[in-house]
Amino acid sequence: MNKTVDAVxxxxxxxxxxxxxxxxxxxxxxxxxxxxxxxVIMATDITDEKFKKNFMAKAATCNANVIEIGTKDxxxxxxxxx
Length: 82
Fold this sequence. Notes:
The protein is mainly α and 82 residues long. 55% of the residues lie in helices and 10% in strands.
């Protein structure tokens, strides 16, 4: 397994323990707008380029780090949803 993937999985698991995870684009966008977010893990297989560009621009306004890694299905697994 890739060290970056392992690190992201570890981050997700540690944040789940402290209720530090916000899931879903609507909920994440609200946190971005409220500037209460530090980092975002975004799937690499997002096909809506307009959404992605808009989201990245908004995330930049609150200095949130955006990490593009894994597919939607992989992120779902990492979150323990499947």
